[in-house]
Amino acid sequence: MRLEMSQDGDSVLLLDARHFPIVICKWEGPPTEALASEYIDWLGLMIERAEFYETRLIHVIEASKIGRPGAIARRILADGAAERKAMHAEKGAVIATYLNPDSAIVRGILAVIRWSLGTDGYELNLTESLRASVTAAVERLAEAGVEAPPDLNPVFYELELDPQVPMSARSSSRMQISKILS
Questions:
Q1: Counting runs of H as helices and runs of E as strands, what totals does the chain give?
Q2: What are the φ and ψ backbone dihedral angles of 46, each rounded to 5 degrees?
Q3: 159/88 Cα distance (integer angstroms)
Q4: CATH at 171
Q5: Phi and psi for 66 in degrees, rounded to 5?
Q6: What domain range includes position 131?
Q7: Alpha helix (H) ranges present in 95-169?
Q8: Looking at the 3D structure of the chain, how many domains does it have?
Q9: Computed over its alpha carbons, how large is the radius of gyration of the chain?
Q10: How many C-beta atoms surround the C-beta of residue 178 within 10 A?
Q11: Which of 54-63, 109-118, 121-130 has the lowest mean pLDDT?
């Protein structure tokens, strides 16, 4: 599992699966249509991986630097989340999602996501920081009886743009993740 970074214009999406079954994403700038699609595809693959290995995962979203998405990107995110829930809810692979919003924009996006998903069987928790989200994710994994990744320390975890991490095109990212799953 790896860290991937994708850029579309001024927007960046970081996808970190190095600490599976805790998967972490970070948005910087407004979600674009391409990045929203990439994110939904990646999350679907992570859920499928959890199902394949008969484990459960926790999803952390770092949204303190997110911008306002356009209508189409919002629709992609809302529809994608609803589709993932419909496809995977029965198996219960996703324990919870932790998100640290920093603005009214993010809270608005959450309203759309909650409206799309409903609240039945979907645990969405808001925190004040990435550290708080990762800490809560580690604790929630333990409560669910799932072993936490040994190399994930919430005190030291950071997810920052790093020029050493190669940018991946949308299609190559999906191919890379697909190879990891196989």
A1: 5, 6
A2: -65, -40
A3: 27
A4: 3.30.750.24
A5: -75, 150
A6: 3-181
A7: 104-117, 130-143
A8: 1
A9: 15
A10: 12
A11: 109-118
